[in-house]
Amino acid sequence: MAGAATSLASRAAIQARAGTTEPALVQRLLIGLALVFLGLFLVVPLIAIFAQALEKGFAAYCAAIIEPDTLSAIRLTLLTAVIVVPVNIVFGIAAAWAIAKFEFVGKNLLITFIDLPFSVSPIISGMIYVLLFGRSGWFGAWLVEHDVRIIFAVPGIVLATMFVTFPFVARELIPLMQSQGSEQEQAALMLGASGWQTFRRVTLPNIKWGLIYGVILCNARAMGEFGAVSVVSGHIRGMTNTMPLHVEILFNEYNFIGASAVASMLAMLALVTLVLKSVVEWKSARQIALAAVAQEGMENDEH
Amino acid sequence: MKLRLKQHSVLPGFGLTMGITLLYISVIALIPLTALFGRAMSLDWAEFWATATHPRTLAAYRLSFGGALLAAALDGVFGLLVAWVLIRYRFPGQKIIDAMVDLPFALPTAVSGIALTTLYAPNGWLGRYLVLAGVKVSYTWLGVVIAMMFVSLPFVVRTVQPALAELDLEVEEAAASLGGNRWQTFRRVILPAVLPSLLTGFAMAFARAVGEYGSVVFIAGNMPMKTEISPLLIVIKLEQYDYGGATAIAVVMLVASFLLLLAINLLQWWNRHRFAEGS
Fold this sequence. Notes:
The complex is a heterodimer of chains A (about 300) and B (about 280). Chain A has about 300 residues and is an all-alpha fold.
């Protein structure tokens, strides 16, 4: 009687545990389905780029890349990233400091503004600068008079890229700094550190991985932006052509090897971004785990 | 004790950081966007209406919004599947697969565009088999939907994953011990719990797909009335220096995006609210 009761109870326990998972066959079926989907949908397109770029061999690949127009596109892409990324780092840190460390009216509105570029079509992101600085834009006449070119020139490309990439660093840092609070900074200030010292020695080490993560994403988008830059660039070969725009030009000229060769460089950039992102996620997870352990240790000491 | 709102803070730097933030956002985003709405205001109503409801424009809206709706719905299904498999099961290569989900975010859209076009062209790796089956993808609306699905898939996976990870297994155990089979538990217990995240992911995917340009224009073929998306129509108007026409279409799209942004925020609020009540 007692034996029957235990066996019933253990059966219920087993059933209950089994209740939170699926039969092995269903599991394998779902995993298989997901892998086939991701394989066809993500991996095959990636491989296709490299396969087409190397179709006529490695020499043709290199020849396509050292073409003068391609090299100038690479230079412009790098130049844009070198200007845009540092500016957006400063903005991201400033915005995160103001939003995460202080309470003020209109904070949610400000956060919504920071999210704007994510919900605006890249074409509209580029177009707003054309309406402002284009020939018949708000400042168009003044710019023509003073012989300053913004649209169909490098400044326009930089502005449009800034617009589409400014949320990335701020978006990573705001939740991170909010979750960390400001007790540590207050302690540093109380001990006599200056504001700048506090930021550099206390805040910066705490947000390091989040910051790097944001910079990686910002850089990837800055180098890869197509729509917004396409509207303001004017597609002048060797002058205002970035790498993604050059891919389009080569593709439309049926130069598929050249287009794929330039595209493969951008794809490698994307892969490096993904690897760095995984490393940073792993590091920051470890940092959080270590901080939790340290916190626990401190609390145990107190009691 | 834990969360005391500090209106007065001992921390320095509020003026400086707030100043930088407001200045930068104003110069980079707010003033240019105001220019767009200013331009829209200066259009006369008849002209605005004529452009915004021209048959070619309407066809472009239909493709952009309809295609994005379909793409986001398909992403919802496959995204949930991928998130489920990644959170619930263990299999070799899982970490790499998990990292690969972000590929469409990291890959420049022009690269995705030519990759998909190459793949689904009638002589491409996938296209040649689809042609045998009588399905044409490149230069049709189907290609537009596939490109939209590609770029917005990570939104669904990345919003559903944390919600699935946070689910309390005890609730599922309870459902099972009360006699529910696994499918019932999924449909009646798990799905309602992740629904707000799934809808948020869906809305974000939809918003991205509506505005997407780079990956779509290569595979679409861009035939007026048939495979021409709204952002492309804006580009065409801009190239013809028809700033008024471009503005009219852009304003319609922007208003749609703002409504979506509002919907996403409401969904996230609902999500937080529900979890706050639960705990």
